[in-house]
Amino acid sequence: MGYTCLAMAKRVKGTLLPPPGALPPISLDLNKAEVVNPDGIRPAYSNNAALMMAPHDVRILFSEIVINSPTDTVPEVELRANISMAPTQFKAFALAVGQTLASFEKQFGEITWPPKNQ
After folding, report:
1. How many other CB atoms are there within 10 angstroms of residue 58's CB atom?
2. For 63-106, how does the pLDDT look when each residue is reduced to its tens digit (9 = 90+)?
3. Is the separation of the CB atoms in 62 and 83 below 8 Å?
4. How far apart, in Å, are the Cα atoms of 23 and each of 14, 17, 55?
5. Measured in Å, how far apart are the chain's first and last C-alpha atoms?
6. Distance separating alpha carbons of residues 9 and 34, to the nearest angstrom
7. pLDDT at 23 > cutoff 90
8. pTM of the predicted structure, to 2 decimals
9. Phi and psi, residue 51, nearest 5°
């Protein structure tokens, strides 16, 4: 099964503004941007997330709640990713998440929240 990508930047054409007195602004077409992975970042699973905010950024801590044995009464929370972004980028991300959720539910059916016990 393939993935449908709803990228935050997909419909955005931006302008990179240089410092005053430098070269003229550069027009960016993010629809043509190549995605590269120079640090070898690998996929990670997360079943838990925490949000933190400060005046100039929003941080999302993605983690996985892990129970190591059937007798464990206290799970471990293993950090999987620590992502910071500017508030404006976070809003764009939140809108993209909402659009992706709506598309998912249209294609696969409504996700109930909170989940029903199985």
Report:
1. 19
2. 999 998 889 889 999 999 999 999 999 999 999 999 999 999 99
3. yes
4. 16, 9, 31
5. 25
6. 12
7. no
8. 0.68
9. -115, 140
